[in-house]
């Protein structure tokens, strides 16, 4: 086997094929919301309406995604992901047509809400790695690091591609091409049946010859430490959401709003690079302690953007600070996802990881709202205190979790007293 840990991953038969399909399917995840905002605001002249429609879709995804993931675990990835993606694609096409032909506003909300059935392609890919690398913790760590770097890359390139397509071609181009990429990627991914984890909804034959349904594990929410872990994902999402809004506001205040995308891309690039390096390093120590250290690094480095804008008031200094600050987010996410995999029952792995993503999305929405409020009332520079506060909350939750899971030392053994003494 190759010595490079990433080369070892892709030496597994079928790994390259399902990864290529998954990356094609994952790229539109960073395109749809930006495309919808550009398309709706351009046709209806209202950013408020565009924001409300995308927020509705996010809320619908938070409700529907865990149910879709549960079906994936129970019946298999290919059997559920393909029809769920087709239904979501119809929702995107419906949104496109409603905007194009001036349908009532409520049709925009209904159409975008229908896209909530989009399966968690990143979670399905991580589930395949967990199945293929079962029992090899270092290789699972490398695979999770690669998947996190892929997430950062797709969410860095997706908005740029969407904005380019909508501007260079026509306002609906970002949504239309995103649908084509999503369908193509999911079909390629689902076609790789050899690497797919077996569905957990199969029946078992009892000793008497009767066919009975195999018992289902309890919900991942009932697993020990899982609620606290989801709260940590919520706080981490708030870091991302607030950082995006505050950076756009700061760049606008500097008269360089068009540069905000490039500045945010530096943060994602730092995270992507750090994730790949973190995956190449052999992990040491318990997972909970590693999560605590990564959370502490994220909380410390998130002070750099606040210091840079407070001291220099420079967009260039902020760019460098975001590049460095981003280097702590990928290791934090990788360790958190590995903990989710460890604590989730094997037959509900997609559901557990989708719950983590749902918590992250909820945090992004809340962080965006908090960052917007801070910018409005305190100013763009002071707004960078919101991601710092969110990172500190994630660290506090991780610290409480580490204390709760620490096993007490056994009491000292009593000396044996001989009989008659």
From TrEMBL:
PANTHER family: MAJOR FACILITATOR SUPERFAMILY (MFS) PROFILE DOMAIN-CONTAINING PROTEIN (PTHR23542:SF1), PTHR23542. It comes from Streptomyces kanamyceticus. Gene3D superfamilies: MFS general substrate transporter like domains. The lineage of its organism: Bacteria, Bacillati, Actinomycetota, Actinomycetes, Kitasatosporales. Coiled coil: none annotated. It comes from the Bacteria. The chain crosses the membrane at residues 6-25, 46-68, 80-99, 176-192, 228-250, 262-280, 292-309, 315-340, 352-375, 381-404. SUPFAM superfamilies: MFS general substrate transporter. The keyword Metal-binding does not apply. Residues 195-221 are annotated as: Disordered. GO terms for molecular function: transmembrane transporter activity. Keywords: Membrane, Transmembrane, Transmembrane helix. This is MFS transporter.
